[in-house]
Specification:
- By secondary structure, this protein is mainly α.
- The protein folds into 3 domains: 72 residues; 52 residues; 84 residues, no CATH class.
- It has 6 helices and 2 strands.
- A two-stranded antiparallel sheet has the order 1-2.
- Strand 1 and strand 2 form a beta hairpin.
- The protein starts with a helix and ends with a helix.
- 10% of the residues are buried.
- The model has no long low-confidence stretch (mean pLDDT 83).
- Keywords: Membrane, Transmembrane, Transmembrane helix.
Length: 211
């Protein structure tokens, strides 16, 4: 009986280590998602860090799930959202039957699939308060980096390799693009980040007041 308990404890420790490894792997995947083609070799611009880590994580997740080293347990409150994501993805896949351009259809399906995975896996891994803090600080750090790149672009007129058309009236435009292709993408990123920044500011102010 003691031996069985010891084996179960050992298996539990192993599962915890696997879960921790997968969590950090997913965090690295999440970080690279913000930088996209910027983290790609010049010889292969279509293959960048996010895609490599994304598929590596997906393969390992399916493998560990198959051998029961990971348990896909979610709270009852979250199940309707996962069902909605599954229905959304299924309908998008079905729409390929009447798509005018199959190649564009598959590309948009990939964008949808990867986007839903970013949401779903983040919910799965970052449930404890300490995990949410790590995620919060990571996203704030990414925001600061992107804003810093934008300020650097405006001050110097230089741009990263991911920038698209940078000439305006015959001169190099100083309009910031951050790590994105054009200013509109940067503006969209900032607009979508506003609710997150407000929540982060309230949380950090609350922490400072109670410290």
């Amino acid at each position: 009986m003691f031996a069985k308990a010891s084996v179960k404890r050992s298996e539990g420790d192993q599962n915890d280590k696997i879960m921790k490894f997968m969590k950090w792997l997913w965090l690295a995947t999440l970080v690279t998602a913000f930088f996209g083609p910027l983290l790609a070799a010049n010889a292969h611009p279509g293959i960048f860090a996010f895609k490599i880590l994304f598929f590596l994580h997906l393969l390992l997740f399916c493998f560990f799930l198959t051998i029961r080293k990971l348990n896909f347990n979610t709270s009852p409150q979250m199940k309707p959202y996962f069902i909605f994501f599954l229905v959304w993805l299924s309908w998008a896949s079905l729409s390929l039957l009447w798509a005018d351009n199959i190649q564009d259809g598959f590309q948009n399906l990939w964008y949808l699939f990867s986007g839903l995975c970013l949401i779903g896996f983040s919910i799965f891994y970052f449930r404890a308060e300490k995990d949410l803090k790590i995620l919060l600080y990571t996203l704030v750090a990414i925001f600061i980096i992107i804003i810093s790149v934008g300020i650097w672009e405006h001050q110097t007129g230089l741009h990263l390799k991911t920038a698209g058309f940078i000439f305006e009236a015959g001169v190099i435009s100083k309009i910031p693009r951050g790590v994105f292709k054009n200013p509109n993408d940067l503006a969209t990123y900032l607009a979508l980040y506003l609710p997150f920044l407000i929540i982060s500011a309230k949380y950090l102010l609350g922490r400072f007041k109670t410290a």
